[in-house]
């Protein structure tokens, strides 16, 4: 009896599979589904003549790899947007890449699932970097690099804040409209508002003027300092600074400072004092410069297009391919092993798993490299989310409801507390095709730690999901949508365990967050690691959490790897000098 109970108890720990219902598919190796748009490669992301830049050293490395029987230049573990951008950028430069994804479709937290005629985004739904303007539209550029362009729907507002003391602020697409609305709530702080957001624009404009590639590649980095000295010095000046400290230089009103905390929290899961100024500027300005744009057919289409593009360029992606270890030879990463026992080898290995998973699970080394110890000293895993995907009757939403909302009802002190605030996206406001006629999708989420969900039997786990989800829905009903509970036609609840299981992220974490007050982005590691041949990509690399942030990490990673395998220019002497300089800078953080 006891044994049976124990087994049942263990089984009951399994989280809801409902968020990720594709798992019945058979083993897939993507073939080349036709791309709907013309295949003109984006020149900004292209390497024009890879062979012309091969150095003798790199040629030898590549020859060695071929002699050792490597079929691939690089293996990428995981097909989140970070992994896919790294893979496609490498493929565009001429590399042969193998992507191994544990799940059955690409995208990770930018994936999707369908249920009863509704098409839900798993996670990401506010898309920065998706316009046709400037240099920072990294999602548009990543798609263009594989010959794809998605139709998008402009969102007239990024988010509608519903905050304590009945403070309601709509972040309009037009910067002037947003500033007018904010200054109408805080007229005595007009000057401070203009100065703080003005500093954000200085940084954004500097970023937007640069060609974005690997900050770990000295020829590029020094070249940028030469070509754009003012912009680079501006970025270097703000690199170690945080948004909260800068806001306090200009603004005194505590409620307005709390509003800026909320602005930062929705993109960094921490307050403004802990949010790097460069990251804050990126999102606080891109939403007005390029605007937030939603892809027709849902966010999942981005990863699908990247995966198809990768295959069309002669590289491969395998699904249901769970990497359990990275194979080292003489301390160098040379391949990976799957849970099936199958092994694949390549010149370079890139991990899109979090650094905690990469170094804690995939590398069976007793001693963490010093760099990773330092990373873990400075950054902890952010909590995960409780997410509720619902189908509701359309009549419950008032006309002109915004697509994205952030709700904090009871007091500013709850901002960073688990379940303290509520995020809500209603993508059907922009794209009604995602739900059956007469219905909307509500994607609700709130921060939640894994510790709340462990050690429960199946019944208690299911019961707790129901109770907590109902409390959150009731709060939304009270604040925004009377009659919400009775309008629900479909409801799926995911917990941190669901995210851990299906996104393969330690504790289901949303990403790294600083332990204390960071020195801006100074301590954030780039893509190379202490293990020769092993690179990381994704949100535990510079510049951190966010779809556009991991896309940038993918661009940087592909550039560094391409230089290391001889597909981009490199200088081994300068490489060593820059790596030492960056190590020293990080130690100052
Ligand atoms: N609302 C939003 O806008 C929102 C919501 C959720 C996430 N996001 C963003 O998405 C970012 C994450 O993107 P990402 O690219 O870093 O990662 P990701 O977590 O989205 O994707 C990682 C992929 O790697 C796969 N994987 C992990 N370990 C593996 C293994 N051992 N073997 C095979 N496959 C493995 C996972 O299955 C997953 O598909 C987050 O930082 C977050 O900011 C945004
Ligand atoms: C020495 C050295 C190294 C240096 C020098 C100087 C220089 C040159 C520098 C440079 C730098 C750079 C380039 C940088 C860059 C950066 C970047 C690009 C960044 C980016 C970022 C981004 C981000 C962070 C983003 C994020 C986002 C997110 C997270 C989002 C999210 C969302 C959500 C959650 C949603 C919400 C919802 C509702 C409300 C419903």
From TrEMBL:
<dbReference type="GO" id="GO:0016491">
    <property type="term" value="F:oxidoreductase activity"/>
</dbReference>
<keyword id="KW-0472">Membrane</keyword>
<dbReference type="GO" id="GO:0031969">
    <property type="term" value="C:chloroplast membrane"/>
</dbReference>
<keyword id="KW-0520">NAD</keyword>
<dbReference type="Pfam" id="PF01593">
    <property type="entry name" value="Amino_oxidase"/>
</dbReference>
<protein>
    <recommendedName>
        <fullName>prolycopene isomerase</fullName>
        <ecNumber>5.2.1.13</ecNumber>
    </recommendedName>
</protein>
<keyword id="KW-0125">Carotenoid biosynthesis</keyword>
<dbReference type="InterPro" id="IPR036188">
    <property type="entry name" value="FAD/NAD-bd_sf"/>
</dbReference>
<keyword id="KW-0521">NADP</keyword>
<comment type="pathway">
    <text>Carotenoid biosynthesis; lycopene biosynthesis.</text>
</comment>
<feature type="domain" description="Amine oxidase">
    <location>
        <begin position="81"/>
        <end position="561"/>
    </location>
</feature>
<keyword id="KW-0150">Chloroplast</keyword>
<keyword id="KW-0809">Transit peptide</keyword>
<dbReference type="GO" id="GO:0050660">
    <property type="term" value="F:flavin adenine dinucleotide binding"/>
</dbReference>
<dbReference type="InterPro" id="IPR045892">
    <property type="entry name" value="CrtISO-like"/>
</dbReference>
<dbReference type="InterPro" id="IPR002937">
    <property type="entry name" value="Amino_oxidase"/>
</dbReference>
<dbReference type="InterPro" id="IPR014101">
    <property type="entry name" value="CrtISO"/>
</dbReference>
<keyword id="KW-0934">Plastid</keyword>
<comment type="similarity">
    <text>Belongs to the carotenoid/retinoid oxidoreductase family. CrtISO subfamily.</text>
</comment>
<keyword id="KW-0413">Isomerase</keyword>
<keyword id="KW-0274">FAD</keyword>
<dbReference type="GO" id="GO:0046608">
    <property type="term" value="F:carotenoid isomerase activity"/>
</dbReference>
<keyword id="KW-0285">Flavoprotein</keyword>
<dbReference type="GO" id="GO:0016117">
    <property type="term" value="P:carotenoid biosynthetic process"/>
</dbReference>
